[in-house]
Write a structure and sequence with these properties.
Helices cover about 45% and strands about 15% of the residues. It has about 210 residues and is α/β, with parallel strands linked by helices. The protein has a single domain, classed as Alpha-Beta Barrel (TIM Barrel). The strands form 3 sheets. Strands 3-2-1-8 form a 4-stranded parallel sheet. Helix 7 links the parallel strand 6 and strand 7. Helix 2 packs across helix 10 and helix 3 packs parallel to helix 4. It starts with a helix and ends with a helix.
Length: about 210
């Protein structure tokens, strides 16, 4: 199974901001206990690289990717740490080509027809739609899926347990991303039982919709 297929099968990608690298492993373990074996650790904090490395080395059951990757230097650092996929908030042609030439799954943010056309020209068939709640949510992605047959979206931004079912049910949605399962406050306060419970809730919704 290739990485994009795995992400689609999982259906939900927790977006995780780690402030202290030592919290990465228990967060990953909490997600696993809730039934989610994919996580995106964002490059928003100085701890990101070490956090990815720690999960990659100590929680082999977890497929860890790097998010908020803005340039090739960050991408190289993430891959060296063990990231297995790259997510970017926007479409950078140089970064995308860097990944595709190395057979690294890359998911850039695309919200306009022009960005999508560029992504398609670079060989991509799955793109991030961010922030989904700002750029029209499901109605926007439905409209965009018309002219771009076969394109699938990973919406992030405004996705939560309350609307996850609607997102996942749409045929043009590959998976949904969100941070509600792993709030920074819960991680900081070591409320890993709460993270596990929210992960289980999300995984159950995906399974019920897609079974």
């Amino acid at each position: 199974m290739d990485m994009m297929q795995k992400l689609g099968n999982t259906g939900i990608i927790p977006v995780v901001v780690i402030d202290h690298a030592e919290d990465a492993v228990p967060t990953a373990q909490a997600l696993l206990s809730g039934g989610i074996d994919v996580m995106e650790i964002t490059f928003r904090t100085p701890a990101a690289r070490e956090a990815i490395q720690s999960v990659s080395a100590n929680v082999p059951e977890m497929t860890v990717g790097a998010g908020t990757v803005l340039n090739i230097a960050q991408c190289e650092a993430a891959l060296a740490a063990g990231a297995r996929f790259i997510v970017s908030p926007g479409l950078d042609e140089e970064l995308t080509e860097f990944c595709t030439k190395r057979s690294v799954p890359v998911i850039p943010g695309c919200v306009t027809p022009s960005e999508i056309m560029k992504a398609l020209s670079l060989g991509l068939r799955v793109v991030k739609f961010f922030p989904a709640n700002v750029y029209g949510g499901l109605s926007a992605m439905k409209a965009l899926s018309g002219p771009f047959t076969g394109l699938r979206f990973i919406p992030t931004g405004g996705v939560n347990a309350g609307n996850l079912r609607d997102y996942i049910a749409a045929p043009y949605i590959h998976a949904a991303g969100g941070s509600w399962m792993c709030k920074q406050k819960d991680i900081a306060e070591h409320r890993f039982d709460q993270i596990a419970a929210l992960a289980k809730e999300a995984a159950t919704i995906v399974r019920e919709v897609r079974q």
